[in-house]
Design a protein that fits this description.
With 115 residues, the protein is an all-alpha fold. It has one domain (9-114). It has helices spanning 9-23, 27-41, 45-57, 59-62, 76-95, 101-114. Helix 1 (9-23) packs antiparallel against helix 5, helix 2 packs across helix 3 (45-57) and helix 5 crosses helix 6 (101-114).
Length: 115
């Protein structure tokens, strides 16, 4: 199965993050996640390289004030879904060799919240 049709933990977690963001009207953040998923699923080497660059270097993705991971959602249920999906995304990036200090911090913090 090529990367344009595969469903896996990374794709599933990005789908869930996007869904939660859209349900709370975080449209620009959801668009960013959608674009990231498209890069990941692309068969083009340049797209996959861009995906790898983003997940390993872009702080906007991983946490801190004003980042996607810092989105304040409207309900406890939405927050729990978001936290779990983001944690799954970060741990899957790490498993694929695409971890960064930012993603590892997110795993540490979000991991405490989902326990």
């Amino acid at each position: 199965m090529d990367s344009s049709t595969k469903k896996d933990k990374l794709t599933d977690s990005l789908d869930e993050i996007e869904s939660v963001l859209l349900s709370d009207s975080f449209n620009s953040e959801a668009d960013y996640i959608s674009g990231l998923r498209q890069l990941y699923r692309s068969v083009m080497i340049s797209d996959r390289e861009e995906f790898e660059r983003i997940v390993t270097t872009e702080k906007y993705l991983w946490g801190g004030m004003g980042t996607i991971a810092d989105s304040c959602l409207s309900s406890k249920e939405a927050g729990q879904r978001f936290t779990r999906a983001y944690y799954d995304f970060a741990t899957e990036c790490e498993r694929l060799g695409l971890g960064s200090p930012y993603s590892r911090d997110l795993v540490r913090v979000f991991g405490q919240w989902i326990r």
